[in-house]
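seq/struct pair 1
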Amino acid sequence: MKTTNALISAQNISVVKNEKAILKNIDIEIKKNDFLTIIGPNGAGKTMLLKCLMQFYKPDSGQIIKKPNLKMGYMPQSINIINTMPMSVQNFITVRKKFDEISFRQVVSETQIKKIINKQLSVLSGGEMQRVLLARSLLNNPELLILDEPAQNLDVSGQIYFYNLLQSIYLKRGLSILMVSHDLHLVMASTKKVLCLSNHICCVGKPQQITKDPEFISMFGKDMADIMAVYQHSNETETVQHNNIITGE
């Protein structure tokens, strides 16, 4: 597999737990300005793949190749907030982080959290907390932003808002994004490339192509594939318009 200009790549990685294959011979490559979304059913190995790529978990075989000094930001699915331990949004974003004031002000503005910067984490809504987690992951100006189902606890309007915000940041910063998501209808309108995972790579390609792939149809059903194809086409203009509202363009 070619790795020229890759920020990070996995070559033939496999993970086995309790004699069960979690990942089977995975090849994946993230380059500059990529926006790749991993989709698949529960238990497909999506989060494990992220852990391997970030070198939180060592695969049983294969190798991970990373650009030297690659700066990565990571946004987990959620965090456990202990209500009895007070911490403000600002303290949470900056704790154990090396940053300058300009970078801090930038992420506060980009993620639209200025009004809640002095609030306690324990009183935040789900949408506010996700934006705070996003701000923390951006503070070190990453080249690669990795997100694990970032909108799973949000309602539909919250999901739309978050994904449009993420798209705006992607376009402004010119970074690369690797994301796990189950929000198919929104993913198809925002990402550049989709990888369908079910312990092995079933199919990979542009959103408008992936919905026609037999593996995608087998996994999600023909009705879902048809809906996604129509939604992706009809929502492109709407998403651009929504992005322009967010970015003020």
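seq/struct pair 2
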Amino acid sequence: MENLGLILLATGLISLGGLIGIVSLAVNQKRLERALLVLVSLSAGALMGGAFLHLLPEAVNQLDSELAFGGVLVVFIGFFLVEKVLHWHHCHKGNCEQKELLGRINLIGDSLHNFLDGLIIAAGFGVSRNLGWATTLAVALHEIPQEIGDFGVLLYAGWGRRKALVANFLAALTVVLGGAIGYLISVSDNLIAYMLPVAAGGFIYIAASDLMPEIKKEESLRKSVKLFLVFLLGVGLMWALKLLEP
């Protein structure tokens, strides 16, 4: 039951990210875009570090290596299919180019994504507190730009500010549901080890297919170097947490 409390605490904190979109209304657009790109870089590094330094080693430790790496590959492909079928896309700026990503479809994709984040966090705490909080940190870092972007998508789709904020927060609450279900799965069927490749595959997909392409769009060499250093900082955070493990 102690793990359940930690999972609910972590996912509850993550769900508050659904309210952060309102910040975008009070910040200069250009300044917001610069800040988001820094957050995207930090998030990409944290997700990669979380996958390769925490989740994958633990998965290989608990499962056959072929099963662990094969699971990561299957999940990576699965995330790609989900993105295509549901038009799930992380929009890190206020405007998204494809209008079909707007409104309800955006909320469906966001809710599913947050639910999976909850499962990932539950998998982390199922192994250890350190892995749970490391996973929570990685999720939190990529939730900030995602939630700001999702809020912008709803406004762009013609939703009122209050309606968009409430809808975005309700979608964010699915991370708590995912955490609770992840806990029940791990306790009832001892499937926690099989959730680790799911978490790792999800982290790698989000970082490689969504976040890092955003970083590559920067054309200035000076800014690109800064973003790369921020990316390394994200990896470094995960490495530091790894060193703190008993």
